[in-house]
Amino acid sequence: MDLKKEFFKYLNQVSKANLDQEQLFEQYYNLLLDENKKINLFSRKMKDDEVWTVHFMDSISIAQIYPDISNETILDFGSGGGLPGIPINILFPDNRLVFLDSILKKTNSIKYFCKKLDLYEAKIVCSRLEDLDSVWYGKFDRILCRSVKILPQYKSILAKLLKANGVINLYKAKQIDDVKMFKNYQTYDVSNEILGERKIIEIKNG
After folding, report:
1. pLDDT of the chain, 206 residues: tens digit per residue
2. How far apart are CA 206 and CA 193, in angstroms?
3. For the domain that residue 54 is a member of, what is the CATH number?
């Protein structure tokens, strides 16, 4: 199976991407693979072409639920190599992305990616969530968490970071135990034969 071809097919199903956006995904793919040789941003056991589906397709799967995320200020919590934030920013360029990770090598990589991809609106913050400056409180329309286990101590901080009508989106597979600490949440199934079982959890503020 040509996983790159499958990604671009999926991309154009969830959002009508233009040629420039497709080229940005190509560029990001090459940058990510090259950087991963120096810094462990994702598993090195993974085959190169699996990045198209395991990381890129998964990152944009949220567009199945929200086909037009635009003009939002979004926090990518635990971003690692810029996932899912960079794919979301390529797909919806009108958004203002803030990338948060506690590992300096990773935030430096994200800065490098954003510079190369001309994502000038992006901001990169190296901090643990619990140490994040209060200047960010009430700033975000949306918080994205992919491959991050939500600890109980994160719950109140995430709520403070959101605007009054803000939303948290968690990317999940089978294990959703950490979601149950939230009173009100909705689960959307974005599974497919390539990704396997995948869910987007929506948690509204308040």
Report:
1. 999 999 999 999 998 889 999 999 999 999 999 999 999 898 888 899 999 999 999 999 999 999 988 899 999 999 989 999 999 999 999 999 999 999 999 999 999 999 999 998 899 999 999 999 999 999 999 999 998 889 999 999 999 999 999 999 999 998 888 888 888 899 999 999 999 999 999 999 86
2. 35
3. 3.40.50.150
* Number of independent structural domains in the chain: 1
Confidence (pTM): 0.95
Compute the distance between CA of residue 107 and CA of residue 99 in angstroms, rounded to an integer.
Answer: 8
Distance in angstroms (rounded) separating the CA atoms of residues 181 and 200: 16
Range of the domain at 52: 3-204
